[in-house]
Amino acid sequence: TPFHVNPNEVDAVKWIEREALENDVANNPDQYSFWFKIILQEINQRNLWPS
Fold first, then answer.
1. How many alpha carbons fall within 13 Å on the CB side of residue 43?
2. With left for phi above 0 and alpha for psi between -120 and 50, is residue 2 left, alpha or beta?
3. Are 25 and 37 in contact (CB under 8 A)?
4. What pLDDT is attached to residue 25?
5. Which long-range contacts (CB under 8 A, 24 or more apart) does 31-36 make?
6. In a 3-state reduction of DSSP, which class is residue 1?
7. CB neighbourhood size of 45 (10 A)
8. Are 37 and 29 in contact (CB under 8 A)?
9. So what's the pLDDT on residue 42?
């Protein structure tokens, strides 16, 4: 399903696997917003990843 982003709020979008995302956030934390990192942490802690 396509989605639309607000260019005033989003700099870039890319699709990557979960492990690649977690590695990229760990290695390049400045490229992700504060809130994205908080949400990612919550998803991991609550095991909310789709099967």
1. 12
2. beta
3. yes
4. 98
5. none
6. coil
7. 8
8. yes
9. 97
10-50: pLDDT as tens digits: 888 888 999 999 999 999 999 999 999 999 999 999 999 98
pTM higher than 0.90 for the full model? no
CA distance 18 to 24: 10
Q: Please identify which residue in the block is written with the tokens 């400045």.
A: 30
pLDDT level of residue 1 (50, 70, 90 thresholds): low
Q: Indicate the residue type of 22.
A: E
Domain that holds residue 5: 1-50
Task: Please state the domain count of the chain.
Answer: 1
